[in-house]
User: Fold this.
Amino acid sequence: MTTSAVSTVCSGCSCLCDDIEQGGDRGRYANLCGRGTALFCADPLKPLIAGTEVPLQKAIGEAARILGAAKMPVIYGLENSTTEAQEAGIGLAGKLGLDVDMPSAPFLEEITGLISRGELPTCRLDEIPDKADLLVYWGSNPVHTHPRHLSKFTYYSYTDYDPAGWVPKKVKLCCVDARESEFSRLCRPRFIIKPGEDATFIRGVLEESEREDSRQFLDLVNESSFCVIFCGGGLGDGLGQDSEPFVRLVRKLVQGRRLAVVPMVAGFNSRSLYQLRKDGGAPRPFGRRMEGSDGLLVSGWDPYACLPRSLAGRIPAGNLVCIDRSYNLTARMAHVFIPVGIPGLDCAGSALRMDGTPVQFQAVTESDLLSEEAVLRSILEGLA
Amino acid sequence: MTAASGGHILTVTTFEDIHLWLALHKEGVGDAYRKRACIIFLSAVDMKKLGVNRGDNVRLTAEAGSIVVEARQEQEAKEGYASMPLSLYSNYLAPADEDEGVHAGRRMQVEVMPAGEETTPPEKVLPEGRHA
Assistant:
């Protein structure tokens, strides 16, 4: 057991905060947000079949049996998995003649692809503090999705504050969103638009129309010298997953200033999966994938927490295998549940932060749990 | 979708709430989860039209199902639009659109009516067949 403080990386979200200090026993950490605390401080889990505790090898064997016997298996998730686990999952899918199905909607994957190919401007998160003078969160609420984003990487990480010590002096915090929130109330200005009105708002900026909020937004960006737009899933939803209006907007706004786009990806390692499956085509709708499926392996995601109940009913729960770091809703529904080690705590691995920066995890505690990669490779061996 | 007498059809969007996620990880679908999930945020205009105050219960009916949740007011919400946390409750109302992705910002048409009933217990919205 570790007895002195060691630094580690949190795998709670795609911020991948690298300043987590573990002081002694499991359960004592500094700098973790709520999301990281829930992950790092959870009770250890055991493998289950039909809700009954079983030895790990029996659970792995049952998972291999289900996938091997299925006529139409599906492998789903892997956005909350290390790059090594993603490669193992893709290898397992390949053995079964499948592609991995991932939960992301197409918008953020397309934006990330454009950034990776150098077709949209971007920046690293550590380039932002004290340099960017306009931060725009569009369709994302970092307080809930990436809790330390504001304090570690953007608004509150600036060093020059007003005399009262509340507000950074040389940067404006702005949001475009479809609803008011505690985060939007911090923003000056904030643009609260109707749900699904993003394309109209963008058109107003592109055409420099009389639409008041679009004109205000354009003026705001034109006054900046380094603007960063953090685009979230809400922007993709608002645009019906069509990235073209946003891309046109960025290409207009980048004239005359530095402008960067950073995708607020949902999984802690979504960016890596986007790259690994860059030739895998657009994500397929889950409802269609479940048609006729008689074996589903979900790794590193929780579809029961996200899907309409009527679609969730199509999951073949009797042949559902869930591999996860936590006992989520999908784990509670699964016929086979295999708990895995938490990257940065129980096991090592690598990932790409939301801005594309490579990050390495180290194991900082002794654990009986296998890594997700090791479990997926064991299932692959069990198929042979 | 047509509104019944006394009801209003609103466009409801969903959003992520970290407190829900924490409640789920800490104690599963229990009281803390219900408190954060079983709510709808309405505009002041719609609350007035419906004749409901903050904390009153309202019945939400969509093609996929019907539940009772607590009404809250959202200051800047536009008339005709409302929002709910992404949860088993909003999932219960969401249509089974086969082309729908698995993401937070779902939009759905929901009829909202005042309700003199208790809010829907989590057991009703949980998927069937779960283990403990």
User: Anything to note?
Assistant: Chain B touches chain A through 49 residues (CB under 8 Å). The CA atoms of residues 6 and 130 of chain B lie 37 Å apart. The longest strand of chain B covers residues 65-73. Helices of chain B lie at 18-27, 31-37, 44-50, 88-93, 122-125.
